[in-house]
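name: query_chain
kind: protein
chains: 1
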Amino acid sequence: MAKIGFIGLGIMGAPMAGHVASKGHTLTTYTHGETPASLLDAGAKPCASSAEVAQQADIVIIMVPDTPQVEEVLFAPDGVASGLSAGKIVVDMSSISPVATKDFARRIGELGCDYLDAPVSGGEVGAKAATLTIMVGGSEAAFDRVLPLFQLMGKNITLVGGNGDGQITKVANQIIVALTIEAVGEALLLAAKAGADPARVREALMGGFASSRILEVHGERMVKRRFAPGFRIDLHRKDLNLALATGRQLGVALPNTATAQELFNACAAHGGGNWDHSAMVRALEIMSNFTVGQEA
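structure:
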């Protein structure tokens, strides 16, 4: 069994770490606040710092909110880097800047260690069910060593390429998701305002070329007004900020991504930062003074 360290035990990290612990791996942890009781019951050993986790583990997994937090976990005075020794692997499963990731990987590599960026898609539901999609950047040798752990947490696991390629794949995923939510919202809003039943419109579209997982799941949320978060607007805003910042750095125009971000910003301005991201439709509804499902 491997010696695994896990840093960041929030709504995603805790169940992911739980799947690792359930298979008998030695698990050391560090997180803000307390290590969940379920992990302690599974044998997790809390540490006093990220450095201590790195000292005790052969593979260190990080799952924190954004680029600054990953940098702190890695390179603060008591961070992972100060506890590493040659031959260990650092796996960042957070969703952060692809450009910063390449720098982090270089700095960890200079310590004689491997680095994988392995962001995930699937949200809290996928983390709990161990059905996450995992997009990986790094060496094939490091990927092969960590793959059995990835298989405890997810189902669709792909080595995309070198360091940073996992993160850019996650950014691309979030662009597609956001723009498809916007398209579904526009379509259902137009149909509803024209007097059609949006639930039946959605049902009809599910049998055609417009069919998608987002039309299926988020279209239903829009029609039934169920915006309790599966994936919060504020988190998707963070991911689109990464997309737009990376686009600026690379000189790539992302006009529709910018529009989707402004719609999310409008939702947040109306108190919707914690709404599910399918509630982007609310921004369209406010501009149109009409609600999907409302009588014409």
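note: DSSP finds 14 helices and nine strands in the chain.
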